[in-house]
Amino acid sequence: MAHGVAGGLIFGIPLLFTMEMWWTGATMSRYELAALVVSSVVIAMAFDLFIGFGDHDSTGPSRVLDATSEGVISVALATVIATFVLLLTGRIGPASDTDLAVWVGRIAAQVLPVSIGVAVANQVIPRDSASTDSGTPSTPKMSTAKHAARDLGAAVAGALLVSLNVAPTDEVRRIGERASAAELVALAVFSLVATELIVFEAGWAGQSKRHAQPGLLQSPWVETVISYLAALLVSLAILATFSKLPSTDSLIPLSITLGLPAALGAAAGRLAV
Predict the structure, then answer these.
(1) Closest by alpha carbon to 207, among 112, 155, 133, 107?
(2) Half-sphere exposure of residue 176, counting CA atoms within 13 Å on the CB side?
(3) Which pLDDT does position 102 carry in this prediction?
(4) Distance CA 101, CA 30 (A)
(5) Contact, 4 vs 74, CB < 8 A?
(6) Which residue numbers in the chain have pLDDT < 70?
(7) What pLDDT sits at residue 139?
(8) What is the DSSP string of 193-204?
(9) What is the distance between the alpha carbons of residues 181 and 32, in angstroms, rounded to a whole number?
(10) Which residues pair with 127 in a beta bridge?
(11) What pLDDT score does 272 carry?
(12) Which of 23, 78, 156, 193 is disulfide-compatible with 115, CB 3.0–4.6 A?
């Protein structure tokens, strides 16, 4: 499950921060939203049936039933992810000043892209295998300092790649300037927990090696905090570049807001090395 949640967050976060998606969800009819959810299940089923590389013992109708179950689970996970992120960013819930129908529409509109991320993670991206890792040719040993520098560089690159898709838009300002102190703290905590889960708990290929790396800087939570601080600095630099900091009072709220996609990008960057 953690594997799918990680994929849904990484692939879905740019659209979760997209104003047009918020508006689309608020204006679509219930029939259009239902069709979107059904389409999400069908697409997730297709990943399992035709693209996934996992081992499948079932065939025929039983295979279709298994794929349907995978599709429903992907959409269910996507719904939870979208709901949680939209609550954190104030797009639904009491802070949004909108009614229940708008909340449901905004969640449903995000289900398709997020569920595709879940399906890709579950069916396409390789999982970790300690036995496979140990059987691969050994690579030259790298010092703790070089490991830390490599991971930090990958985190900065990933943070730049993802946050540059979000920072030039007005969504970050809308979310950050309306967020309360408690909401900003919750957003920062979620960013930390989500990135630790993605890199060290989601079961991506190479996870056992990441856990085994020596040194204080390479321990999971220390590395996660350092990576998040780097993502915040990247967010601040990008916001300043695009003149999205109208005053010093907005520096922390907007940096923490953009820090979520930046931190997820940093996690993806660390997975790539």
Answers:
(1) 133
(2) 28
(3) 92
(4) 9
(5) yes
(6) 51-60, 124-144, 205-208, 210-218
(7) 47
(8) HHHHIIIIIS-B
(9) 36
(10) 204
(11) 77
(12) 78
* Helix 220-241 × helix 181-196 angle, to 10°: 120
pLDDT at residue 240, as a whole number? 87
Query: How confident is the model at residue 216, as a pLDDT?
Result: 56
DSSP codes joined into one string, 8-62: HHHHHHHHHT-HHHHHHHHHS-HHHHHHHHHHHHHHHHHIIIII--S-----HHH
Predicted TM-score of the model (pTM): 0.84
Give the model's pLDDT for residue 79.
95
Q: What are the CB-based long-range contacts (under 8 Å, 24+) for 233-241? A: 234/156, 234/159, 234/160, 234/163, 234/262, 234/266, 235/159, 235/163, 235/167, 235/259, 235/262, 238/160, 238/163, 238/164, 238/167, 238/262, 239/167, 239/172, 241/167
Handedness of CA 184, 190, 193, 197 (dihedral sign): negative
pLDDT for res 198? 86
**Cα atoms in the 13 Å half-sphere on the side-chain side of 114:** 31
C-alpha span between 178 and 207 (Å, rounded): 37
